[in-house]
Amino acid sequence: MLDFSIEPEFQAKLDWATAFVREEVEPLDLLFPHGGDPYDTRNEKARAILKPLQDQVRAQGLWACHLGAELGGAGYGQVKLAYLNEILGRSYWAPTVFGTAAPDTGNAEILAMFGTEEQKARYLQPLLDGDIVSTFSMTEPQAGADPKEFVCRARRDGDEWVIDGEKWFSSNARYAAFLIVMAVTDPQAPPHARMSMFIVPAETPGIDIKRNVGTMDERDSLDEGIHAYIRYDQVRVPLDAMLGGPGEGFKVAQARLGGGRVHHAMRTVGKCARAFDMMCERALSRRTQGTLLAEKQAVQQFIADSWVELQQFRLLVLHTAWVIDTQPHGAARTQIAMCKVQTAKVLHDVIQRALHLHGSLGTTNELPLAKWWMAAPNLALADGPTEVHRTTIAKQLLKNRRPADGLFPSEHIPPKLEAARKRYAHIVEDDSLSGRVQA
Q1: Would you state the pLDDT for residue 439?
Q2: Which residue from 81, 120, 214, 327 has the fewest beta carbons nearer than 10 Å?
Q3: Rounded to two decimals, what is the model's pTM?
Q4: pLDDT tens digits for 168-200?
């Protein structure tokens, strides 16, 4: 049965998280506002505030809830995680405070699933403890996220792998203790079996960060970029640095993406809900032309459209989470793609309206709306471009459909009308009954 109800014990956890994020975590967004701040383990002042907050989360049993109890998490299913991520979406720092920051969450999951015991001890446990951060180094400058076009190679040389090539947009590499790198190990294999995944310690010789690329709200002049353009120049790692088996790089990568997309979507719900609250407050506070904004029909339409769009999206994400929880692996592929397509659109639409209602103030750095709005293009590209996911949706929806049997569509009225007449001829041809049949 489809049921999104929340048991009282978990609701109490959510209520605690809601108050905690608003009162304790959102101030971190103001004190340490730059994109790399939650990942910079060398920032002693930020860590001095962060660590006690993380301890409170642990005490509530809400630390790294996406992981099983054996790894120190609560082992929540995707529906519970969705409800929690809706709250975490209010704050940029909240995922770090709750041990669920990307890309560390996905990297922790694949380490747990595919790592050896030695790899888990060396990399996974410090990651779970929040003592280090990591990088997922997959996309390439000439290929984007299309693995069929990857050229970064890893060749075997005795008892080592030698990685050579470039990677683009490797998030948080400047702060990472290790990088998980996807490289081509068998260029002659089928596209999805050409690559393998490697764990590369950040101190390994040959890792050259060409530059840390700044996005829309990051200033190159202040070196705020956190997405690295990396050259791997004859980087040598031991044979046991491989994560998973040879040729399983694509499989490993896919294992970390589905849940992450749902988490991003539900965090977007939380961020949009915060923007919606701001929109309503503004409508009830600001007067123009003699009346409140809330009394203007255009503003009322902004509010109504935003709420309808947001609730539709929220239900889509919850349903997707439910499918992941209750149906076989892969059953939610279409739903996950739908969430990915809508995430950037809903974020853009709701925040655009909220920003517009705040006028010039909305475009300034004195409100968070402009910064949030600038995240929309990135969300449309992260974890695969929106267009790719639209194609996935269409292919899945068309897979079990079939073309019309004849020249005309199956809903063509003339033959259907003839069939209906034949089926009920004993009634429609009975002159003793009144009524008309369409000619």
Answers
A1: 52
A2: 327
A3: 0.91
A4: 999 999 999 999 999 999 999 998 899 999 999
Q: Torsion angle, CA of 289/293/295/298, rounded to 10 degrees?
A: 100
DSSP 37: G
| Alpha-carbon span 258 to 287, nearest angstrom | 45
φ and ψ at residue 220, rounded to 5 degrees: -60, -35
CA dist 44 and 337 (Å) reads: 39
Per-residue tokens: 439:
């000619």
More confident residue, 251 or 89: 89
What token pair was written down for 420? 């209906």
Using an 8 Å Cβ cutoff, are 180 and 243 in contact?
Answer: yes
Inter-residue contact 65 to 88 (CB < 8 Å): no
Helix 297-326 / helix 249-285 crossing angle, nearest 10 deg: 150
Q: What is the DSSP string of 39-73?
A: G-TT-HHHHHHHHHHHHHHHHTT-TTTTS-GGGTS
Determine how β-strand 195-201 pairs with β-strand 287-288. unpaired
Structure tokens at 85: 């991520």
Largest CA-CA distance found in the chain, in angstroms, rounded: 96
Rg of the chain taking only CA atoms, in angstroms: 26
Q: Are 36 and 173 in contact (CB under 8 A)?
A: no
Query: DSSP 3-state assignment of 340?
Result: helix
The sign one gets for the Cα dihedral 33, 39, 44, 48 is positive
Nearest to 107 by CA among 197, 230, 167: 197
User: Contact at 8 Å (CB) between 56 and 238?
Assistant: no
